[in-house]
Design goal:
alpha/beta, 3-stranded mixed beta sheet, 7-stranded parallel beta sheet
């Protein structure tokens, strides 16, 4: 199976590439624009694999994407390329409209033309897998409710609105043109190779450097956390076993407040790399002004993918967090150039982290 992965140099995309390339039955073609969050160092372990190749390209460039689809005889598209940082979408929404909406349209157009040229047996097995987020559903009260595949869309930020729009485009290409699509909406991912402006890696690295760990508001906002390698397994199942036209929610069944997450990070680092004098890293936690439109709670009902595709998360939040913290402790080679090199001007160590 020849699989095109867009955004494969990003956090989730690189995890999917590493996971799929372990199976010699897949040939993985990674397309990434290499914007600020794209990092080929995350793919170092597979860069010389015979079933992996990389092409630097923009999904908004429909002609180039069409050429890649034809040249590599693609059977499945896994679309992960997206601008995904909520705070950045508030400061500058234009890039989110361009990449997440226009880029998805260009990719759909190229994929449709490619699919229509395939012979009948391959047309039926072809899949366009659009990887989305639970943020398209808006937010939930702290004490009730859960997102299902039938939850109405109610996005709160420019980021989530752009992802909601792209979900609708994908469904429209299925209903109007017959393109065999599947959609997945995931909860918050965490794990190795996570870009250091996000909540968990930023808290880890600020703690290691003895810097304040900023938390929005009172830290009461709740998210469902999903270990990225569990997500990669789920995405493989959706792309290869999912029914055309269906959507699947993917969650880790680990609802925690942002403050609890940061406290657990501090406690884990206290255990693995204690501060002189035994002072807890918790005293670095600093509450900052909340961001606009900050959703209260996300919660995913993943029973459909569990029931129909047999997926279950293998990591609890406790075990996944321990693996994640240990990875950052042991892999300074990856995060230091990001934190102190070409992104230093963006103040990654001082801005408040998003909860996504």
């Amino acid at each position: 199976m020849n699989i095109l992965i867009t955004g494969g140099a990003g956090f989730i995309g690189s995890a999917v590439c590493r996971h799929l390339c372990a199976n010699p039955g897949y040939r993985v073609v990674n397309v990434d624009k290499l914007t600020y969050a794209g990092n080929l160092a995350s793919l170092r372990q597979i860069e010389n694999y015979p079933n992996y190749c990389f092409a630097e390209a923009d999904i908004c460039d429909g002609e180039t994407i069409a050429g890649i689809l034809e040249r590599h005889d693609i059977d499945t598209v896994m679309h992960l390329a997206a601008e995904s940082h909520v705070d950045r979408s508030i400061d500058g929404p234009a890039a989110f409209i361009e990449t997440n909406i226009v880029g998805t349209f260009r990719l759909l157009s190229a994929a449709l033309a490619h699919w229509q040229r395939l012979a009948a047996p391959r047309r039926s097995s072809f899949r366009f897998h659009h990887v989305s987020t639970d943020e398209v559903f808006g937010d939930l009260p702290f004490d009730q409710g859960i997102f299902t595949e039938d939850t109405a869309y109610a996005p709160s930020s420019p980021y989530s609105a752009s992802k909601a729009a792209s979900d609708h485009l994908v469904r429209a290409w299925h209903e109007t043109y017959g393109l065999p699509v599947v959609i997945s909406n995931c909860s918050n991912n965490y794990g190795p190779f996570h870009f250091p402006e996000k909540l968990i890696p930023l808290a880890i690295l600020n703690a290691l450097h003895g810097k304040p760990i900023p938390v929005y508001g009172s830290g009461a906002n709740i998210r469902d956390w999903l270990f990225v390698e569990d997500h990669a397994r789920a995405l493989e199942l959706v792309a290869t076993k999912g029914l055309a036209g269906e959507s699947y929610n993917v969650g880790g069944n680990s609802e925690l407040s942002n403050l609890t997450v940061v406290q657990m990070i501090c406690d884990t680092i206290d255990r693995l790399r204690p501060r002189p004098g035994g002072v807890s890293h918790r005293d670095l936690i600093t509450f900052v002004e909340d961001r606009p439109g900050h959703d209260r709670r996300y919660a995913i009902d993943a029973s459909k993918i569990e029931r129909e595709l047999g997926w279950r998360p293998s990591e609890s939040f406790e075990s996944g967090l321990d693996r994640t913290v240990r990875w950052y402790l042991e892999n300074e080679w990856w995060w230091r150039p990001i934190r102190e090199g070409r992104y230093a001007g963006e103040r990654l160590g001082s801005r408040a982290p998003t909860s996504e």
